[in-house]
Amino acid sequence: MTERQDVVTLTIDGVEVSAPKGMTVLEAAKRAGVVIPHYCYHPGLPVAGVCRMCLVHVENTPKLQIACAIPVADGMVVNPYHDEAVEARRGVLEFLLINHPLDCPICDQAGECELQNYVFREGRARTRYSPTYAKRFNPVEDFGGDILYVPNRCILCTRCVQFMEHVADDPVLNVSDRGDRAFIGIHPGEQLEHAWSGNVVDLCPVGSLISKDFLHKARAWELDKAPGVCTGCSQGCNVVLETLHNTVVRLRPRTNLEVNRFFMCDHGRLDYRWLNRGDRIEAPLVRQDGDLAAVDWHHALERAADIVKGSGGPIVVLASARASNEALFLATRVAGERFVGAFRVERVDGEEPLPGVPNLALRSERAPNVRGATELGYTETFDAAVTALADAAAVIVVDEPLDTVSNAALAKVPSVIYMGTTLPEPARVAQVVLPITNVAEEDGTFVNRDGRVQRYLQAKTGPGMARPAWWVLGELLVELGRGEPLATAGEAFEMLAGAVRAFDGISYDGLGYLGAVLGTAAKAEATA
Amino acid sequence: MGYPHEPHPKETLILSKHFGDAGARSYDGWVKCGGYQALKRALAMDPADVIEIVKESGLRGRGGAGFPTGLKWSFMPKERRKPHYLCCNADESEPGTFKDREIMRWTPHALIEGCAIAQHAIQAEVCYIYIRGEFTEPIAIMQAALDEAYREGVLGGNAMGTNRRIDMYIHRGAGAYICGEETALMNSIEGRRGNPRIRPPFPAQQGVFGMPTTINNVETLVSVLPVLNEGAEWYKDLSLGNPKSTGTKLFSVCGHVRKPGNYEVTMGFPLGELVNDLCGGMRDGRTLKACIPGGSSVPILNREETEACLLDYEGCVEQGTMLGSGGVIVFDDSADMVYQIMRLARFYAHESCAQCTQCREGTAWTVRILERILRGEGEMKDLDLLLDLSEQMTGKTICVLSDSCAAPIVSGIKKFRDEFEAYITGAKQPVAALT
């Protein structure tokens, strides 16, 4: 009953829609399948109400209303496409364009520009601003960090100012001057140095705040996009990997209200170049006559299986906390009862929080799957494991870069199976080298620090014969006579979820794009 | 005494009775003039009763919008769960308006008394008097009066011996017209950029520092004194015309009249009589051409409308304009209306806070078109464009600054189209240098 009172029913563009009390008309309209054009409004920012783009007609009110600021009411009839509203928005667009340089051909935002989009949708075909008037001109300004400000393109929506003030709690941006001379200013002596300031580039609806890193790198419409999870730390921010010609060129945040809302930090955003490394292992290698020789997968897997079968004593798995749950789990299966697993993670001092969002920070542990590795039986005892390698019968390296491991330490082990993307010096002692894909080249899951299992999808193809680690390990199990072939990361995950208690009740399909938290399914069952 | 001129017999001197009398500036002088009696009465009453009397008097806001004062006060929460605030809007920046300045210069204690009464009515311990920064003399006088009021025990922790706290602070503006808009004023007091806020929330719910706030114009607050001293009925009966407009109003008359200045007349007084009789008519045998009756933000009246207009809220609306702040700007037949309107538009373009798109870009574009017309480079279609832009700038923004820019343009083109056309056709010499 109480629930009922908190919900109102209104009509938006002829569609009846229910919305909780307190929701804005603009958000409610999304439920009715109507995106009301807007600039200053953003769900992650306080309502500014300044662009006047979201003007809509509301029955029985004398003036047009801004949909971003008015709350829904029972029986309200909103018409975003009323003649008056369309005319008002056309007016706003015309005003926004009179001082706009119309330099779309050389603007990074073109193709994903809300000014372009709405003008295309609702704007005038021709200007009434006589060409004899000079347009406002201000030079490009370096705001510091990764950010350039192009004032000529600015529509003064103030999203950037709002973000820095209310979300980043570092109010270095402002609106300077007044009237049509106004521009976004940065306080004297200040720069956009906040760890999360790169978000203003995403928030900017036009090409006014742009990334130096992405500058003139690609046209937005040529990019392919895949949902991913940031590997920069254990927060597990949801991201979009954007690729051009099979090369990752940009990471951007993907909305997940439970994890990162609409944001990601600059550390994660700019940490993508390693995904494009050119020095990759492209074929399986096996040791022949003292040298590593390229062979086909069948041959390499046979040799690997021989090593696992032939050895007595512990099989040490040196894993990366960047490896997927599927890979980590299957490696434990390959090692079987002789499994000893260790991982290593870079830890730095302190976190870089985003104050306006609870429980969101660039975390001090700089790997995405520390929690997953731990749940799957790996311990953060990497150095001890390396020291104890002398007693190991075999070592399986899973995506661990080995940059803290000496050649001698690994050489002591009778057999080394190295699975990796590149071939670092210590790995050259391996009997078998199995080329795997990196996180951008495969499907898989990570568990973030709060126990949220999240999927990432393949964004580009891997080099040569490289295969996802879950596939390689699955095939190895087949070779060992201990499993059926796995066709997808999903099948690997289902196998994991059926075997590891912590993953009870979680299904790959059920994860969707937003993930699910470990233990919640079991808890729900317990209370039911 | 209607300083600097002798009072005209047709004036009704209530607020301006002591204008020009430096003796009334001091605490003693003000008490001798019957000052602080209204405050004493008010403090002896229940706040709700003070609000009731002001409601009955029909007093409406004198700052421009004409909202009923008692009703505005009644919007404040009845119980004081959070601090309540009063803001006195003394940021008088409307072109053509200079009445509040004279109230503060000559009767500073009247304003202090009016503020204190309002504070009692809305249960606000603190009042901020936001004075336009350029008003150096009024600020000095107000500050001296405020210090005196504290010394005399009118204000402070035991205000008027009632054991209640009434505090007042003067806050100086820094020169922005927009800070006279009530929510921009509150932002300015808080130390923020003077940008108008979106409503709701209204000031009575979340005003200055997020607390319930009432904001009143100087003249409104001063008008509360006669209401309390003489009674609501007496105040209501001062009206000549519509019963919805009561009391007296100060009109600041400027422009092409023989005797510009502040004139206090009762509501409903004929505008024609004010201009032609009280102000001595046009200079040098010229004739009346146009008049803006309520400060630069209201539509322009032509001669016929000026002579037919009654000076109250309804009378002005009847002529298609508004009473506004009571800043009467008079133009004789020598005035170039196109140039005058351009100057007004230029003012608004300069003062736009830059938040709303229509205002930021529209006001400046409007100026460019008007300047082009004055340079003799205009086209007939520019007039339609001006009207269309004005339509886009009306009723679509957070505050009414762009509406105010549009009002004189729309009324100007409607009533003086021939002057615009004369520039466009070349019948009139272009203005060579625009200043």
Description:
- Chain A is α+β, with helices and mostly antiparallel strands and 528 residues long.
- Chain A has 3 domains: 2-95, Roll (Ubiquitin-like (UB roll)); 131-222, 2-Layer Sandwich (Alpha-Beta Plaits), CATH 3.30.70; 285-527, Rossmann fold, CATH 3.40.50.740.
- In chain A, the strands form 7 sheets. A 7-stranded mixed sheet of chain A has the order 15-14-22-21-20-16-17. In chain A, strands 2-1-5-3-4 form a 5-stranded mixed sheet, with helices on both faces.
- In chain A, strand 16 (315-320), helix 9 (325-335) and strand 17 form a beta-alpha-beta unit.
- The model of chain A has no long low-confidence stretch (mean pLDDT 95).
- Chain B is an alpha/beta fold and 435 residues long.
- Chain B folds into 3 domains: 22-236, Rossmann fold; 248-332, Roll (Ubiquitin-like (UB roll)); 337-425, NADH-ubiquinone oxidoreductase 51kDa subunit, iron-sulphur binding domain (de novo design (two linked rop proteins)).
- Chain B has helices at 27-32, 37-43, 47-57, 69-74, 99-106, 108-122, 136-151, 182-189, 218-230, 232-236, 271-278, 303-308, 313-318, 337-351, 357-374, 380-392, 401-415, 417-425, and strands at residues 84-90, 124-131, 167-172, 213-217, 248-255, 261-266, 269-270, 288-292, 301-302, 310-311, 327-332.
- Chain B has a 5-stranded mixed sheet.
- Chain B is globular.
- Classes of the chains: A alpha+beta (528), B alpha/beta (435).
What is the name of the CATH architecture of the largest domain in chain A? 3-Layer(aba) Sandwich
Helix content of chain B: 40-55%
Total helical elements of chain B: 18
Please, what is the oligomeric state?
heterodimer
Q: What is the structural class of chain A?
A: alpha+beta
**What is the straight-line distance between the termini of chain A?**
22 Å
> What is the CATH topology of the largest domain in chain A?
Rossmann fold
Question: What is the overall number of helices of chain A?
Answer: 16
Q: Tell me the CATH topology of the largest domain in chain B.
A: Rossmann fold
Q: Give the strand order, joined by hyphens, for the main sheet of chain B.
A: 6-5-11-8-9
Work out the number of β strands of chain B.
11
How far apart are the termini of chain B?
Answer: 37 Å
Uncertain residue segments of chain A: none
Major beta sheet summary of chain A: 7 strands, mixed
Largest interface: A-B, 36 and 31 residues
Strand content of chain B: 5-15%
Please write the CATH class name of the largest domain in chain A.
Alpha Beta
Portion in helices of chain A:
10-25%
The coarse silhouette of chain A is elongated
CATH architecture of the largest domain in chain B: 3-Layer(aba) Sandwich
Chain-averaged pLDDT of chain B: 95
